Amino acid sequence: MIGCLTIGIFSNLLWKSSLLNSVLLLIIIWLIWIILTPLSKFFDRLSSTKILSLVVVATLFIFLFQLIILSYFPVSVYHDPYRVLTQAEQLATGNHSWNESTYFWRYPNNVALTYFLSCWFRLTFFFKADTNLSLNILNLGLLDSFIILLLSTLWKISHNKSLMIGTLAFVGLSSFAYTYFLQIFYSDLPAMLGLLIIFRILLFWQSKTKKQKYLCGLILFIIVLLTQIIKPNTIVLLPAIILLIILWQSKHLLKNYQMLIPLVLIIFGLISVFPANDIIQKITGFQSNSAYELPVSSWILTGQTKNGIYERSIISQELKLPNKAVRNKINQKKILTILKKSTANDLLKRWFLKLSIFLNVSSISSWYNGGFRAAPAWYQAYALIIQQIVDDSYQIAVIILNLLLLKRLSKWQPQLKRWSDSIAILLVITTLGFIAFHTLLWETESRYGQIIIPLLLLQLGIFSAGKNQIQSQKSRSKSGFLLTIVMLTLFLAFLRLPNSSLKPKSLVVAAQRSQISTQYQLRSDYINSKNIISQRVVFKHKVNKIKIAIPKNSQLTIYLEALDSGKKIKIKANANNFFTPGNYKLILKNNTGRPQKITISHNKFYQLAPYPLIINKKILAHSSLVYQALWINQKIDKTPEVQ
Asked: Where are the membrane-spanning stretches (predicted)?
């Protein structure tokens, strides 16, 4: 565990980061580390009433800021979350067809999540809410429930005042509460909330009365079942529980079999997922299709590649095979071949790289996020700097969390006779289980690592129970000396690095990237001969690159009309033209004598873009082209062709 946390620290400090940015992060971390002790002493001296007041006020500020983000910074949701919400919207309106694309045939694990989301939509549609508002309420409710329940659990575990404020800072002063989990609905946050509830019930199980245990047991079973359905890798709880029972047995602590009841309920919840999934598929009318379905070995195969991440090329090759059984057979052979050819050094490199990816959080603001649809002008003026701060803030928070946990773990001497220590051991084993699952077996990506965040915070809470951080004068002097060295390094790095290294490469000025994607064989839309499709877009920053999704071999003429001047600029689907901020209209015209394919995203009640799509003067409020308007930090030599 200590080794994994250490790798996580270095991954977040150095992974895909310039030397200057790494040094800046290091300085900020050292400054925070130095002031942790005086801050902890200050907060620990405050009364519980004052701490509660601080928590309430801070939570309200977080909530208000979240409302501002949702109101003024809507993002373009793309990839899996968009496919899930589109199908859920369809189910909620009574359409149980699953053959619009091959996505769910390929990934049936998302059928249950889609069904649960459709139930929420059905409820909110009854109150005349649109899909955007429904998703905002759901994300806000799940995220803030997670934050409040986390704070409540940590206080009940430790009664450590500084830990409460520190946890509040972790969620409120970093991008945790304002980016991915707030703006995108997908399986990660529900699974994190589920794990938090599971371990909260376990931690306080012994203090419950007999009647309370009946209720908690029922809740535990249901939450485990739902979490496992939504996030299948929750199965790592099973070996973790078995290992804990073996530890108890080795220490002769299994005399009271009452302690096994919650663990047995968890096991029942995990194995009940199979009939539950069958029931959900029957309710939704979903039928699997082996011609498209991928076997489990697909994810294991991609996990054994050089980088250990999802590779579309591998999946494309698999889909050329006739069915799931054939794919599985060939995948198994490929996996064995890779393992036989891999040396011990190859395996260690692959595992180290996958672990580094799994524990890295530097890209949280871009997970399933195609950019802001049209952020305010004041934001876009400073967007590159703000974006760097947003990403760095969560890296700093996670590094500090890892450092604190390392400090506690190195001094921890678990006593299995204590229930809290037994659950702490289960937390550690479960955390290592998730890490091992995505490092040794499955494919990985940085988003997957978020599942262990509640587990790490709960461990810190248990290890901090009744303890205050104490730092000697000698330790503070040593920290000051190290800070001086770091600052000197920063100065030297600044002299050596070019200014361009300080700037991210591009800014998304306006975007609508939500689409099912042609790889899932979505039925194409067509634009008839001489017909026109248009959509208004607003650039609140200068633009020098425009991308419009157009099907291959489709012959369409594309214009960008400046609404203020009336001038039309002929552009390509991937255009390097310069445009000043202003109001524009994208115009796609079919000048051929036959229908042409066109990429359009359609929804029932989900507003995809700030302005509707117009087809031959017919307004489609919930349809949109797929486009991006970018500002790239490089010179564009091409000049616009004015019509």
From this structure: 19-39, 51-73, 133-151, 189-206, 218-248, 260-280, 351-369, 381-403, 423-442, 448-467, 479-497
